Structures are given as C-alpha cells and as structure tokens.
Amino acid sequence: MNAVWLRLGEDRATLTLHIQPGAKRTEVAGVHGDALKIRLAAPPIDGKANAALIAFIAERLGLAKSAVSLKSGQSSRRKVVEVNGAKADIEQGLLAD
Question: CA triplet 12, 14, 19: central angle to 5 degrees?
C-alpha cells in the first residue's frame, strides 16, 4: 500500500509533495506524478505557506509540529518533508477526509 510519494523508515517517514499555495482552502488534492499534491490557503510569502504546510501535516497525523520538518524545497512548489515518529498508517492519515 506504499505510495510512490512516501518512504517509510524505522521511526520516520519522508514525503515528496507538490504544493499549491494561495488556494481557496487547505486540503490534500491527490497524487500529482510522484508527489502528493496539497493545496494551501496560505500565500507563498515570508514562509507562511511552509508554516501552514507543517501545521497541516502535523494536525492530520496527530503529531506535534516539531515532529514535522521541511528538508528541501523552501522556495519551491516541490518539497520534501520528514515526519519523525511516523506510524505505518501515515498514508491513510493524509489521504483520509
């Protein structure tokens, strides 16, 4: 059930994401190539979209924001995010409505 955008390790997961900032609402929009597409209501100004992304992922997975970190793509739509303490059901947590 592992998606191509998700890599699971012993105690962490790495997510490859395609971000659409400035959307009407924050939501998971499905798979976009080899990445999970996430629409963010936050604008791509002064790191607001990156902060909103971290908060959104942490909330969806029931983790503290400190468990989610942006590894690459600070100013790009394509981002790599690392989630510490991730469980095997991370895919379901992000894709569930």
Answer: 140
Q: Do 71 and 17 contact (CB within 8 A), yes or no?
A: no
Beta-carbon contacts of residue 25 (< 8 Å; ≥ 6 apart): 39, 41
Q: In the CATH scheme, what is the code of domain 6-95? A: 3.30.1200.10
38-88, pLDDT tens digit by residue?
999 999 999 999 999 999 999 999 999 999 999 999 999 999 999 998 666
In what helix (H) or strand (E) does residue 18 lie, and over which residues does it extend?
A: strand 12-20
In angstroms, rounded to a whole number, what is the distance separating the alpha carbons of residues 50 and 46? 9
How many CB atoms neighbour CB 19 within 10 A? 25
